[in-house]
Design brief:
By secondary structure, this protein is mainly alpha-helical. Helices cover about 75% and strands about 0% of the residues. It has helices at about 1-40, 50-55, 60-95, 105-115, 125-135, 150-170, 175-200, 210-220, 220-225. α1 (about 1-40) runs parallel beside α6 (about 150-170), α3 (about 60-95) runs parallel beside α7 and α5 crosses α7. The protein is elongated.
């Protein structure tokens, strides 16, 4: 059994490396595509369609923005599980009774998805969290945190998206309908991902490493298994 636990830990570590590499690739694609498409759009400044051309990078930016932070929540969930897994490995190596049941990663995920805490958030609650997250995320830059890179990445996505909308508005003239609609869409993405940043970095966040570890400890506790 000890070999099984160690093998799973190594597999999950490899998955973490892949997820982090995936984040870097999405971030690089977002920056590169924005630069290239914006440079191409400037060649058509005299064209009436230039306002919409400046919005073209949003087709890549917004999905990358969302996926980047979705990967971040997956990373913290795996890290929380690996912490518990390592505790189990230490206990087994020391021949101590474990406080946790080993069910395997996929079965553990099923338990997590069935947890009430992971149930879908009502739309009104999600909207409120997005609005408050947007107001709070900027203040996190000035707080001591080891996760400031997530905040910097969020701000980079926001600035690139705002640049596209701003350029489109500046050359759109009276045709401001599309840029304004794009601004609303960017605001929605900014609010939703800001809430994710808050949940990833703040002490009370449900996506933090520590909170995920607490969740896994509760779900995999041997005492919980005896109660069910």
């Amino acid at each position: 059994m000890l070999e099984v636990l160690i093998a799973e830990r190594e597999l999950l570590r490899e998955e973490l490396r892949d997820l982090k590499g995936c984040q870097v690739r999405y971030f690089s694609i977002a920056i590169t595509s924005t630069g290239v498409l914006t440079a191409v759009s400037t060649q058509f400044v005299e064209d009436n369609a230039v306002a919409s051309l400046f919005l073209a990078p949003l087709l890549i930016l917004l999905p990358c923005w969302w996926i980047f932070f979705d990967k971040a929540t997956t990373i913290t969930r795996i890290v929380g599980y690996v912490r518990v897994l390592e505790t189990m490995i230490i206990d087994m190596a020391a021949k101590r009774p474990s406080l946790f049941d080993y069910v395997g990663w996929e079965n553990a995920l099923r338990l997590a998805r069935q947890s009430p805490e992971r149930s879908p958030t009502p739309p009104i609650t999600a909207l409120w969290r997005s609005m408050t997250g947007l107001l709070r995320v900027g203040s996190l830059l000035w707080r001591p945190t080891v996760h400031r890179y997530w905040i910097v990445n969020w701000l980079t996505f926001l600035l690139l998206s705002s640049l596209c909308v701003g350029l489109s508005l500046s050359v759109g003239g009276h045709e401001a309908g599309l840029p304004v609609a794009a601004a609303v869409l960017v605001s929605g993405f900014a609010g939703a991902t800001a809430n994710q940043v808050i949940q990833l970095t703040s002490a009370e966040g449900i996506y933090t490493y520590d909170h995920n570890e607490v969740m896994w400890r509760s779900l995999l506790s041997t005492s919980r298994g005896s109660d069910t």
